[in-house]
Design goal:
By secondary structure, this protein is an alpha+beta fold. It has a single domain, classed as Jelly Rolls (Sandwich). The chain has 3 helices and 9 strands; from the N terminus they run H-E-E-E-E-E-H-E-E-E-E-H. The strands form 2 sheets. Strands 1, 2, 3, 4, 5, 6 and 9 form a 7-stranded mixed β-sheet that branches. A hairpin with a 2-residue loop joins strand 4 and strand 5.
């Protein structure tokens, strides 16, 4: 009986460890649309405290799943990551493909406190992306299948203590192949030439 009990306990421990390491994978369209993520140290386990998590997580078990984004690039694509909550947060970004893992970071920005009167809060993704006070990353990726994850590297503070709670967003935009782009430009040129000839007649 004790062997069965020991086996049951071992299985329960293994399942709880697997649940603690669970991850939500979000497929990303390569149309430039933005995909949100959060960091919330109060809602996650200590192991996941600074990881990106889903914006609609359910912390019923006191633990929120880590979040990763996945996509396959046919030729080239532009990956963008931006801080959305308050100027001063910086992210680690891990980009994994068959070629290996690239560890990058969003741009360095001045660390700030929530009590700072000039602290800008992001209104929209476009406002944050266009503002150098908000940490951001832009990288061109070649053909391949990618998984992107991240974590908080630098947090806005509240009274001198790291808040460790923020939001950000990620987008992927496909870059047309040079031959496709050349065909599009040629077609535009032909249409312009035809229009000019019709105008002269």
């Amino acid at each position: 009986m004790s062997i069965l009990r020991s086996s049951f306990v071992a299985a329960a421990v293994a399942l709880s460890a697997a649940a603690a390491q669970a991850a939500t994978v979000i497929p990303v369209a390569q149309d430039g649309s933005w995909n949100a993520f959060t960091v919330d140290a109060l809602s996650t386990s200590a192991a996941n405290a600074l990881n990106w998590i889903d914006t609609d997580y359910s912390p019923a078990a006191g633990d929120a799943d880590t979040l990763s984004f996945s996509f396959t690039v046919a030729d080239k694509a532009i990956l963008r990551v931006v801080d959305l909550f308050a100027a001063g947060d910086v992210f680690n970004v891990s980009i994994t493909s068959a070629a290996g893992t690239q560890l990058l970071g969003t741009s360095a920005v001045t660390a700030r406190d929530l009590g700072d009167a000039v602290l800008p809060f992001a209104g929209t993704v476009a406002e944050a992306w266009g503002n150098v006070d908000f940490s951001q990353l832009e990288v061109v990726l070649g053909a391949g299948t990618y998984t992107v994850t991240g974590s908080l590297l630098q947090s806005v503070t509240d009274g001198g203590f790291a808040l460790n709670s923020t939001a950000g967003s990620l987008s992927v935009t496909a870059v047309p192949e040079p031959t496709s782009l050349a065909l599009v430009l040629a077609a535009v040129g032909v249409v312009g030439l035809v229009s000019r000839r019709r105008a002269q007649v």
